[in-house]
Amino acid sequence: MKSPVRPTMLPYGRQAISEDDIAAVVEVLRSDWITSGPTVGAFEDALAAAAGARHVVAISNGTAALHAAAAAIGVGPGDEVIVPALTFAASANCVRYLGGTVVFADVQPDTMSIDPAGLERLITPRTKAVVAVDYAGAPADMDEVNAIAAAHRIAVIEDACHSLGATYRGRKVGGLATCTAFSFHPVKHITTGEGGAIATDDPEIARRMRAFRNHGITASVQERERAGTWWYEMASLGFNYRITDIQCALGLSQIKRLPAFIARRQAIARQYAEATRRYREVELPVVGEGRTSSWHLYPVRLHLDRLSCGPPGGVRRRCERKTSAYRCITFRFPGILTTRSSATGRAAGRTPNRAMSGC
Questions:
Q1: Phi and psi for 283 in degrees, rounded to 5?
Q2: What percent of the chain has pLDDT over 70?
Q3: 3-state SS track over the chain
Q4: Which one of 52, 85, 126, 194 has the lowest number of neighbouring Cβ atoms within 10 Å?
Q5: Over the chain, what is the mean pLDDT?
Q6: Whole-Å CA distances, 21 to 28, 41, 278, 294
């Protein structure tokens, strides 16, 4: 009997670079602007259309996008920000960078996104915002999260680094929150090599983020050029989080193929579902009602009590959580500890659904 185990590791992801992508990058390399130039603005405009947002600020990576969003809404020392306990570290680190305190919230047992039912009890007078992560590519319960946030006058940051191209009740991801962060790492839906962006409908928040990515400088080099002056001010503390025209040329070319990229991911997800739905040992990912997923990941949950493992034709034994077989046949995603992490934040009580995910 042929072993079902691959002889080589299945790659996490691969970028898809076309000749048009290469030509777009070469064209910028031959131009006068290779950073902070017109291609950055063109990429931002294309992203705004794709995300259904009034303003988009392109930035150096997805972590910087979260950092800029948190800074623009005013997170600082003494503030609390609620973050789901199942996510990549950057969703919480962006709060810690600014001196804020992370309060971890549990996730729903089916979708693995933040649970609105437990959100309100975590809100205190110090709560500044909530981060809603679109886990694996499916939007979180944004209407419910936004309603709770509005009632308490706090901001919502949608961490959509998994969900560019997804939709929620007929609306595009990108216009559902105070700020929405995207990532363009090579394993994501489109790539700029490294890169990210933040979408918002608030012009003042957009202005703050543009300054934040450029050392807190009040006027861009293009604005100074149009005004015929070298003068500028550093009015706030910022970072060098600029993205280059070279990267944006790649992104501008890639975004033309975003619908095709999403369609391919959705087709693969359907194949996975069809191939595994008959196995009672495997619990498939759930996409909430009224939304589409862009399937950055396809996480499955295994019922280990129903599984055994061993070499083909050899002695088989029950799979246990600590065996190498368990680690090989399941995805393990970076999650935050359920009880406490002094380096990152605190959890108000336990998060049993996050713990159940095995992360």
A1: -105, 120
A2: 84
A3: CCCCCCCCCCCCCCCCCCHHHHHHHHHHHCCCCCECCHHHHHHHHHHHHHHCCCEEEEECCHHHHHHHHHHHCCCCCCCEEEEECCCCCHHHHHHHCCCCEEEEECECCCCCCECHHHHHHHCCCCEEEEEEECHHHCCCCHHHHHHHHHHHCCEEEEECCCCCCCEECCEECCCCCCEEEEECCCCCCCCCCCCEEEEECCHHHHHHHHHHCECCECCCHHHHHHHCCCCCCECCCCCECCCEHHHHHHHHHHHHHHHHHHHHHHHHHHHHHHHHCCCCCEECCCCCCCEECCCCCCCCEECHHHCEECCCCCCCEECCCCCHHHHHHCCCCCCCCCCEECCCEEECCCCHHHHHCCC
A4: 126
A5: 87
A6: 11, 18, 41, 22
Q: How much is the average pLDDT of 250-265?
A: 97
The tens digit of pLDDT for each residue in 305-354 reads 777 765 555 555 555 554 333 332 332 333 333 333 334 555 555 666 65
Residue 190: which of 292, 262, 270 has the closest Cα?
Answer: 262
Euclidean distance between the first and the last CA atom of the chain, given in angstroms as a whole number: 32
Q: How far apart are CA 346 and CA 159, in angstroms?
A: 19
Written as six digits, the tokens of 170 are: 């007929």
Strands 308-309 and 317-318 come out as antiparallel
Query: Which residues belong to the active site?
Result: 188
- Overall pTM surpassing 0.85 (yes/no): yes
- Bridge partners (DSSP) of residue 182 are 197
- The identity of residue 32, as a single letter, is D
Collect contacts of 215-223 with beta carbons under 8 A, ≥24 apart.
215/239, 215/240, 220/36, 221/36, 222/36, 222/37, 222/38
- Topology of the domain covering 19-258+335-356: Aspartate Aminotransferase; domain 2 (3.40.640)
